What we know:
This protein is α+β, with helices and mostly antiparallel strands and 143 residues long. Helix content is 38%, strand content 15%. It has one domain (2-141). A five-stranded antiparallel β-sheet has the order 1-2-3-4-5.
Amino acid sequence: MEVMIAVAIIAILVAVALPAYEEQVRKSRRAEGKAALLKTVQLQERFYTASATATYSLDLAPLYGLAAGAVVRSAENPADTNGWYVLTADTTGCVPVDLTVCVRIVATPRTGFVDANCGTLTVNSRGVRTESGTQDNRYCWGS
Length: 143
């Protein structure tokens, strides 16, 4: 009987602790994605100011010193396949749609990582931050 009570207590503790642990893991991965987005926007600004044509780049790989067209991930080393987000650039939401005016950086969770709360994270060169999940900007970006 005592063993069954101990097992029941352990099961209750696991049932309470496991979801909290999983949410902390998602938050740490989300922090990795947000840091990568902000770093990429900074690299875009450097590229923009150094460019003779004053434009942003849709190819993020050269900004990180990678071969053109390479996949950029949110890991410390953007070529590392362990990053939890894949980074891309586009002009969605930019008015006018012009690389001399605006670029949007998108962090898409890679296969195997699901973040229903925040989903895909984005930030544009104007500082507008969005998410595609069930939570709001304050929850996902802390603002």
